[in-house]
From TrEMBL:
It comes from [Brevibacterium] flavum. Residues 1-57 form the HTH lysR-type domain. Belongs to the LysR transcriptional regulatory family. The keyword Transcription regulation applies. Keywords: Activator, DNA-binding, Transcription, Transcription regulation. GO terms for molecular function: DNA binding; DNA-binding transcription factor activity. The keyword Transcription regulation applies. This is LysR family transcriptional regulator.
Length: 290
């Protein structure tokens, strides 16, 4: 297969459109289309769904993964031959809570390499593996222990979430000395917030009716919304600790939610990917529970 055609396919998926790929590659949109058609003709399969954004078909996902691996190895080879660091593309999937708590030391490590670039794809920890399967990323922070085909798994530790709210909000929903969990306003990060969907486990017996839910799709904004009384929510203990210490919020109960976290990465002989894995593991050791 023509490496240029594979690189073009990868650019379409990363940029989300044929037009975006043409700008990234400094070629015309028609040239992008011709390259993809040539690749599709060669494999006998449609590789790109012409949607907004453009996505890879099942056959296209296989080639996107191959193209991303090739891009990484080419960058590393170029660095070795030139005797200097080249731009090494490292694309990973991560959930918002990890990004805002234990993950930032990875930035320091990657920055020290000089020539690497880091692209983060934000997704709920229950869904990051879909990006890995599609070839969109080369590694993912996930809650899934079973490895994706062609990948290896490293256990990172456990992330603990605490149920917190302002004292005023808690007091407003106390009925006969008991908290009315079902009636109290609650926060969600987004529609794929699997963790928050478990928020009533062990707190309410049986199903509940329609709840008063506010959506705040920002890790920083989520904590701030809790602090200002918009609703109660499950917050990582490292984010909750300062607010608890200041008395701005209180623990609603003693039922934390612990989520085991894992790092899944391609099984690929890549020095950059190995170093990235070491950096992720080291950050997790410092920032997560064992």
């Amino acid at each position: 297969m023509n490496p240029i055609h594979l690189d073009t396919l990868l650019s379409i998926i990363d940029e989300g459109s044929f037009e975006g790929a043409s700008l990234a590659l400094s070629i015309s949109p028609s040239a992008v289309s011709q390259r993809v058609k040539a690749l599709e003709h060669q494999v006998g399969r449609v590789l790109v769904s012409r949607t907004q954004p453009a996505t890879a078909t099942e056959a296209g996902e296989v080639l996107v993964q191959a193209a991303r691996k090739m891009a990484l190895l080419q960058a590393e080879t170029k660095a070795q031959l030139s005797g200097r660091l080249a731009e090494i593309p490292l694309t990973i999937a991560i959930n918002a809570d990890s990004l805002s708590t234990w993950f930032p030391p990875v930035f320091n490590e990657v920055a020290s390499w000089g020539g690497a670039t880091l692209t983060l794809r934000l997704e709920d920890e229950a869904h990051t593996l879909s990006l890995l399967r599609r070839g969109d990323v080369l590694g993912a922070v996930t809650r899934e222990a079973n490895p994706v085909a062609g990948c290896e798994v490293v256990e990172l530790g456990t992330m603990r979430h605490l149920a917190i709210a302002t004292p005023t909000l808690r007091d407003a929903y106390m009925v006969d000395g008991k908290l009315d969990w079902a009636a109290m306003p609650v926060l969600r990060f987004g529609p794929k917030d699997v963790l928050q969907d478990r928020d009533l486990d062990g707190r309410v017996d049986g199903p509940v009716g329609r709840r008063r839910v506010s959506i705040v799709p920002s890790a920083e904004g989520f904590g701030e919304a809790i602090r200002r009384g918009l609703g109660w929510g499950l917050l990582p203990e490292t984010q909750a600790a300062p607010m608890l210490k200041a008395g701005e919020v209180i623990l609603l109960d003693e039922i934390p939610i612990d989520t085991p976290m894992y790092w899944q990465r391609w099984r690929l002989e890549s020095r950059s990917l190995a170093r990235l894995t070491d950096a992720v593991v080291d950050a997790a050791i410092e920032g997560l529970r064992p």
